[in-house]
Amino acid sequence: MKGSSKPTIYLIDGLNFIRTFLAGNGYINEDNLTSELISWLDDLGSQKLYGSEFQLILDGTYRKVGPTVTSCVHAIFTEEMTADEVILEQAQYYKEYSKRAVVVTSDRELAQKVRLVGIKSVSCDKFFNAFSD
């Protein structure tokens, strides 16, 4: 994945990112990983992807994961809908209003749905590897 210099809204499938890519083979506390992911995204938004915003969509109710809102990251806990439903709804909204958006997920079914809407998707590992040092 090649990063864009244009400000972009990244819709990130939070638990998918953590469970399929960050957690690896061993069990690590998901709340700690969520906090680390928020911090990494905040750094990314203030350095390499300046002007972009990151919506980290997480299944379930609010959990203590540290700050959930930074200058460029907004962690959203889905209580009544699934993260996939929220991401798809947001993708449709951004497409309708011609906003530049990318969905970050390793969920093939979700990736296919957002591509049908006309929004680009990228896997979690490709996204991470494109911007990690």
Polypeptide structure, described:
The chain has helices at 14-22, 30-46, 83-96, 108-117, 124-131, and strands at 9-13, 53-59, 73-78, 101-104, 120-122. The protein is α/β, with parallel strands linked by helices. The chain has a single domain (9-87, 100-131), classed as Rossmann fold. α4 links the parallel β4 and β5. α1 (14-22) crosses α2 (30-46). It is globular, with a radius of gyration of 14 Å.
Whole-number mean pLDDT: 90
**CATH fold naming:** Rossmann fold
Adjacency order of strands in the biggest sheet: 3-2-1-4-5
Counted up, domains total: 1
- Poorly predicted ranges: none
> What is the element string, with H for helices and E for strands?
EHHEEHEHEH
What is the number of E strands?
Answer: 5
> How would you sum up the major sheet?
5 strands, parallel
- Helix fraction by DSSP (H/I, runs of at least 4): 40-55%
- Helix segment count? 5
Radius of gyration: 14 Å
The first-level CATH class is given as: Alpha Beta
Structural class per helix/strand content? alpha/beta
What's the N-to-C terminus distance? 14 Å
Architecture (CATH level 2) name: 3-Layer(aba) Sandwich
Q: Label the overall shape.
A: globular
Strand proportion: 15-25%
